[in-house]
Recover the amino acids of this structure.
C-alpha cells in the first residue's frame, strides 16, 4: 500500500528540489558564463529554446494532463496501469513523428543547420522526457524519490562540466551535459515503472477519452511557450547570439527565483485533483486560498530584492561581460510575482476543476501580447525589448485568469491579504539599501549579496511574525520554536 505523504512533506521535498535549481547554477553559472562568453552561451540558449519547442509538441501537454489523469485513478492499480499505458502509447507515436520533423528542419532551416551538432545532442531531451514519465511520479506524490534522483544527476552534471568544459568552443559538450543534468533521471524512472503499474498490456484501451483534454493541454503548452521561449528564438534571429546571451543571463536568474516561488504549486496539483475527484470542495478551497497567500508572501520579496540587486547578481553569476543584461533583469523580475499567481490560479485551481480551456484562453492572450511586443520592440531594444514583452505577457495571463475566477476569488478574499507583505517589505528595502550604500560600497558582489539578502529576508520574515501574519506564523513559527527548544 502506497503511503500518502503530507502536503508539507511534499512541499519540503519539492522545495529542496527547486532550491537545487538555485544552488547548482550558483556553482556552475559563474564558470560557464565566463568560459563560453555571451556568444557560446547564446548558442546553447538558442538550442535549448528550439528543442523545447519540439519536445513540447511530442509531449502534447501530457506532463500536466498525466498528473491529473493518474491522480484521479491512483487508488486502483488496474485503472492506473491502463491510463499510463494509453498515455505512453500516444506519447511514443507522437515522438516518432516529431523526430522526423526535427531531422527535416535541420536540413532546410539555415540557423538550425549552423548548429546541427548541438541540436542533435540536445534532442536527446525529447526521448528522455517521454520515457521519464515524470507525470506518473508526481501523480503518486513520490517527491522524495524525485528529489533524490534529481540531486544525484545534477551533481553528476556539475562534475562533468568542470571536467570537460574548458573553452568557448566546448558549448556542444556543455549542451550534452545539461541534458544529463536535467533529464538523465528519466532512465531510472522508466526502469522503476514496474513498482507502480502492471507492465503487461492490460487491454480494453480507450484512447478516445484522452484526445480532447490532451488537445487542450497541448494547445495551452504551445501558447505558453510562445512567451517563454519565442523571445530567445526571435532575439537570435533578429539581434544575434550576443543579445541572446545577455537576455539569457537575466532569464536564468528569473527562472531560478520563479522555480522557488512555484515549488508549492507543483505538489498541489495531484492533491487538489484528488480532492475534486472525491468531492472534497471545502478542503480544495482552503488549500487553494493558503497557496495563493504563500506564493504572494514568497514572490513579492524575491522580485523586489533581485530588482534592487540586479547588477550585483549579474556580475556574480555571469561576470562583467554581461553588464548589459542588468536592464533586462530589472524589467523581467516582476514576472516572478505574475508567474507565481498564474501557477496557482491556472495550474492548481482551474485545471483540477476541469477548466483547462480557460487556462488555454489566458495563455493564448499572453502569447499574442508577447508576439506583438517582440516584433515591435526587439529590433529597437534587443534584450530589453524581449523582457518587456515577457513582462506584459505574464501580466496578461494573470489578469485573464483572475477575471475568469472572480467568483472563486470573492469567496477567499477575506483570507487573502497583501498589505502585511507590503508593510514588511518597507523596512527590508530600506535596510538592505543602506547596507549597500553605506557599509558595503567597496565589498565584492558575493559579500554584498550575502549580507544584504540576510538583512532583507530576515527583516521581512521578522516583521511578518511581529504582525502575526497567518501564513508566516503557520509555516515558520513551528520551526522557530523547535530551534529554540534545541537551543535550551
Amino acid at each position: 500500500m502506497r503511503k500518502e505523504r503530507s502536503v508539507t512533506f511534499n512541499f519540503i521535498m519539492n522545495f529542496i528540489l527547486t532550491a537545487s535549481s538555485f544552488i547548482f547554477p550558483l556553482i556552475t553559472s559563474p564558470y560557464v558564463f565566463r568560459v563560453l562568453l555571451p556568444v557560446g552561451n547564446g548558442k546553447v540558449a538558442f538550442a535549448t529554446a528550439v528543442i523545447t519547442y519540439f519536445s513540447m509538441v511530442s509531449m502534447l501537454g501530457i506532463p500536466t494532463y498525466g498528473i491529473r489523469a493518474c491522480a484521479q485513478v491512483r487508488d486502483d492499480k488496474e485503472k492506473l496501469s491502463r491510463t499510463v499505458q494509453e498515455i505512453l502509447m500516444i506519447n511514443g507515436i507522437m515522438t516518432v513523428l516529431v523526430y522526423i520533423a526535427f531531422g527535416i528542419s535541420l536540413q532546410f532551416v539555415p540557423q538550425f543547420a549552423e548548429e546541427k551538432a548541438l541540436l542533435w545532442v540536445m534532442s536527446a531531451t525529447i526521448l528522455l522526457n517521454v520515457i521519464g514519465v515524470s507525470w506518473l511520479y508526481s501523480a503518486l506524490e513520490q517527491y522524495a524519490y524525485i528529489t533524490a534522483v534529481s540531486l544525484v544527476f545534477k551533481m553528476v552534471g556539475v562534475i562533468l562540466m568542470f571536467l570537460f568544459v574548458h573553452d568557448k568552443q566546448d558549448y556542444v559538450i556543455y549542451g550534452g551535459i545539461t541534458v544529463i543534468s536535467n533529464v538523465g533521471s528519466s532512465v531510472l524512472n522508466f526502469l522503476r515503472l514496474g513498482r507502480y503499474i502492471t507492465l503487461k498490456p492490460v487491454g480494453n484501451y480507450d484512447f478516445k477519452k484522452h484526445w480532447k483534454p490532451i488537445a487542450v493541454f497541448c494547445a495551452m503548452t504551445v501558447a505558453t511557450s510562445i512567451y517563454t521561449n519565442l523571445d530567445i528564438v526571435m532575439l537570435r534571429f533578429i539581434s544575434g547570439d550576443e543579445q541572446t546571451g545577455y537576455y539569457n543571463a537575466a532569464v536564468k536568474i528569473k527562472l531560478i527565483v520563479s522555480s522557488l516561488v512555484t515549488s508549492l504549486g507543483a505538489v498541489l496539483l495531484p492533491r487538489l485533483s484528488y480532492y475534486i475527484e472525491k468531492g472534497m470542495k471545502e478542503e480544495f478551497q482552503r488549500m487553494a486560498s493558503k497557496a495563493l497567500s504563500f506564493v504572494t508572501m514568497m514572490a513579492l520579496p524575491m522580485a523586489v530584492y533581485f530588482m534592487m540587486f540586479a547588477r550585483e547578481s549579474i556580475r556574480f553569476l555571469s561576470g562583467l561581460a554581461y553588464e548589459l543584461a542588468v536592464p533586462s533583469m530589472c524589467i523581467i523580475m516582476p514576472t516572478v510575482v505574475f508567474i507565481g499567481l498564474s501557477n496557482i490560479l491556472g495550474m492548481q485551481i482551474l485545471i483540477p476543476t476541469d477548466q483547462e480551456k480557460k487556462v488555454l484562453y489566458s495563455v493564448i492572450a499572453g502569447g499574442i501580447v508577447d508576439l506583438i511586443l517582440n516584433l515591435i520592440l526587439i529590433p529597437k531594444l534587443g534584450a530589453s525589448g524581449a523582457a518587456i514583452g515577457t513582462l506584459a505577457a505574464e501580466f496578461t495571463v494573470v489578469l485573464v485568469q483572475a477575471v475568469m475566477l472572480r467568483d472563486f476569488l470573492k469567496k477567499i478574499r477575506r483570507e487573502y491579504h497583501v498589505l502585511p507583505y507590503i508593510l514588511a517589505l518597507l523596512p527590508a528595502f530600506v535596510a538592505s539599501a543602506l547596507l549597500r550604500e553605506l557599509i558595503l560600497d567597496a565589498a565584492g558582489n558575493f559579500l554584498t549579496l550575502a549580507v544584504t539578502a540576510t538583512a532583507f529576508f530576515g527583516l521581512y520574515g521578522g516583521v511578518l511574525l511581529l504582525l502575526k501574519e497567518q501564513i508566516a506564523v503557520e509555516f515558520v513559527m513551528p520551526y522557530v520554536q523547535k530551534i529554540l527548544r534545541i537551543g535550551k
In short: The chain has two domains: 7-416, 417-488. DSSP finds 22 helices and no strands in the chain. The chain has a mean pLDDT of 81. Residues 208-261 form the longest helix (54 residues).
